[in-house]
Design a protein that fits this description.
- The chain is globular and about 60 Å long.
- It has three domains: about 60 residues, no CATH class; about 110 residues, 2-Layer Sandwich (Uridine Diphospho-n-acetylenolpyruvylglucosamine Reductase, domain 3), CATH 3.30.465; about 100 residues, CO dehydrogenase flavoprotein, C-terminal domain (Enolase-like, domain 1, 2-Layer Sandwich), CATH 3.30.390.50.
- Helix 9 packs antiparallel against helix 10.
- The chain is built from ten helices and 14 strands.
- With about 290 residues, it is an alpha+beta fold.
- It has a five-stranded antiparallel sheet with strand order 6-7-10-8-9.
- It binds flavin-adenine dinucleotide.
- Flavin-adenine dinucleotide binds next to strand 4, helix 2 and helix 7.
C-alpha cells in the first residue's frame, strides 16, 4: 500500500494515480539533449517496458522525454572496426539486423533469446542497460564485449561495467550510442541455460602479439555481473584451464540466497568451459584447437 499521488488515500500498489507530468517528444538528438539540459531531472523514456515498473515502484516524474521519434537513435552501423548500436534499437530489431548477424553472429543469437515476443518489439538495448537491473542481460553481453556507452552525443563515454559503480538514481545523461570494437574480436558467445542462477557471456580477442585474451561477464538474477579475464599466453586456448582461471576470480560476494560462492564458481566454470569449447571448435584452423 502507498499514498495515492494526488493524496486521495491509501491504494493498492498497482492502482495509484500518477500526478500530471509534462511530455516532450523530440525528433532529433540535439533537441533531446537541449530538453535534458534544460530539465536536469527529466526522465528519459525509451520502450517504457521497465519505466512503467519503476513508476509502479514509486518513481515520480515531472518531465518525461520520449525518444520514440528520434530515429537517429535507432541506427546500427559498422565503421573502422567499431560496431555502433543506437540505444533505441529494440531487441527484435537488433537480433534480426543483418549487420549485427554478420559482424558478431552470436550477439544476434544471444539478443534473440532475451524477453518475450511482445516485449522484444518495444524494449530497447539502451533501456535494458540504463535500467540497471541485475536480472537484465544486455549489460552482461555488452560487458563481455567491452562495449562503451556514449552519452550526450560523445560528451562522455564509459565502459558498461562502470554502471554498477554508480550509486543512487542520479541522472547519467542521455545514452546516444553503444560501441563495440570488432577489429580484434575473434569469438563471442552467451550461455543462459542456468538462468536465473548463473549466466556467462564470453568474448575472445586477439592481442597484437597473436596471443588470445578472454573476457567473460558472469551474472545472476540477484547480483550484478562480474568481469573475469584470462590471457592464454603463448599456449593454446585450453577450455579446461581457462574456465578454471575465470571461475576462480569470482569474489565471495557473488553468493546469494540461491547459491553459495562455491556453487556459482562451479556453474561459471562449467558454462565458460562449454563456451570455450564451442569457441575452439569454431576457431579450429584459424587459431588453436
Ligand atoms: C515480461 C518481461 C520479460 C522480460 N524478459 C527479459 C529477459 O529475459 N532478459 C532481459 O535482459 N530483459 C528482460 N526484460 C526487461 C526488458 O528487456 C527491459 O525492460 C527493456 O530492455 C528496457 O528497455 P525499454 O526501452 O523498455 O526502457 P524504458 O523502460 O523506457 O527505460 C528503462 C530505463 O532506462 C532509462 N533510459 C532508457 N533509454 C535511455 C537513454 N537513451 N539514455 C538514458 N537513459 C535511458 C529510462 O529512463 C529508464 O530508467 C523483460 C521485461 C518484461 C516486461
Amino acid at each position: 500500500m502507498r499514498t495515492q499521488a494526488l493524496d486521495a488515500g491509501l491504494v493498492a500498489q498497482t492502482q495509484f494515480a500518477m500526478a500530471p507530468f509534462r511530455l516532450h517528444r523530440p525528433t532529433t538528438i540535439e533537441d533531446a539533449l537541449a530538453i535534458v539540459s534544460e530539465h536536469p531531472d527529466a526522465v528519459i523514456a525509451a520502450g517504457c517496458s521497465d519505466l512503467v515498473a519503476q513508476i509502479r515502484e514509486g518513481r515520480g516524474l515531472e518531465t518525461l522525454v520520449s525518444l520514440q521519434k528520434v530515429d537517429a537513435l535507432r541506427a546500427i552501423s559498422h565503421e573502422a572496426g567499431v560496431l555502433h548500436i543506437g540505444p533505441m534499437v529494440t531487441h527484435h530489431a537488433g537480433a534480426t539486423n543483418e549487420l549485427v548477424g554478420t559482424v558478431i553472429p552470436n550477439l544476434a543469437a544471444a539478443w534473440a533469446s532475451i524477453a518475450t515476443v511482445r516485449i522484444r518489439y518495444t524494449a530497447t538495448a539502451g533501456g535494458n542497460v540504463m535500467a540497471r537491473r541485475y536480472r537484465y542481460e544486455m549489460p552482461l553481453l555488452l560487458g563481455a564485449l567491452d562495449a562503451d556507452l556514449v552519452f550526450d552525443a560523445g560528451a562522455a563515454s564509459r565502459p558498461v561495467a562502470s554502471l554498477w559503480a554508480d550509486t543512487g538514481s542520479a541522472q547519467r545523461g542521455l545514452l546516444t550510442d553503444i560501441t563495440i570494437r570488432t577489429d580484434d574480436l575473434v569469438w563471442f558467445g552467451y550461455e543462459r541455460s542456468m538462468r536465473p542462477t548463473a549466466t556467462v557471456a564470453l568474448a575472445v580477442r586477439r592481442n597484437p602479439d597473436g596471443t588470445l585474451r578472454v573476457r567473460a561477464h558472469a551474472g545472476s538474477e540477484y547480483r550484478h555481473g562480474f568481469a573475469l579475464t584470462a590471457d592464454t599466453g603463448a599456449g593454446e586456448l585450453d577450455p579446461l584451464e581457462v574456465s578454471t582461471q575465470l571461475a576462480r576470480q569470482l569474489p565471495d560476494e557473488c553468493a546469494d540466497y540461491t547459491g553459495s560462492a562455491e556453487y556459482r564458481r562451479h556453474l561459471v566454470r562449467v558454462l565458460s568451459r562449454r563456451l570455450l569449447t564451442a569457441a575452439c571448435a569454431q576457431l579450429k584452423g584459424t587459431t588453436t584447437r
